[in-house]
Amino acid sequence: REIRVALEDMKFSAAHFVAFRGFREPLHGHNYTVGVRAGGTMLQADGYLADFGDVKKVVRVACKQINNRTIVPTRSDVLSVQVQRGADGRGGQVEIGCEDGGRMVLPEADCVLLPIVHSSAEELAEHLWWDILVAQKLASILAARGVEWLEVSVSERPGQGAQYR
């Protein structure tokens, strides 16, 4: 048994670039969509495997945290990422130094610093899986209902995306 939730409002718009040894693509953006599948062997007494409302709520929160931001991968091995706070402790800047000598400085409020190596759809799907299950506390809700697995998909555009289970 399986459920799937992939609604039009489960989305975020974000800028990103992928960088690895010897390569950095230009900063650009996508209108990402997020989907979730969950599975288990038994329905509960209420006839559901899981409550769609529980899933939708946490996915929307996760998307909102990234929406209209530049995704900065803080675990990159080819980028240096430094946050410099203003004198008042607010209004900081994120400075990104690139292996090729390029440098970007962005307002901190315009960035989301994620503990990933690359801002690829594959790593975003894995990050959101952990964020949805752990940070948003969906794991305990789903486990109590007998859900055995969860898959998160992130698409950069229709027909082009990645899944993490």
From TrEMBL:
Top-level EC class as recorded in UniProt: lyase
Indicate whether Amino-acid biosynthesis appears among the record's keywords.
Answer: no
Signal peptide location:
none
| Pathway noted in the entry | Cofactor biosynthesis; tetrahydrobiopterin biosynthesis; tetrahydrobiopterin from 7,8-dihydroneopterin triphosphate: step 1/3
Q: What is its EC number?
A: 4.2.3.12
- What is one Pfam family matched by this protein? PTPS
Q: What keywords is this UniProt entry annotated with? A: Lyase, Metal-binding, Tetrahydrobiopterin biosynthesis, Zinc
Q: Which GO terms describe its biological process?
A: tetrahydrobiopterin biosynthetic process
Query: Which cofactors?
Result: Zn(2+)
Query: In this entry, which stretches build a coiled coil?
Result: none
Q: Name one GO molecular function term.
A: 6-pyruvoyltetrahydropterin synthase activity
Q: Which PANTHER family match?
A: 6-PYRUVOYL TETRAHYDROBIOPTERIN SYNTHASE, PYRUVOYL TETRAHYDROBIOPTERIN SYNTHASE
Query: Which family does the record claim for this protein?
Result: Belongs to the PTPS family.
Q: What is this protein called?
A: 6-pyruvoyltetrahydropterin synthase
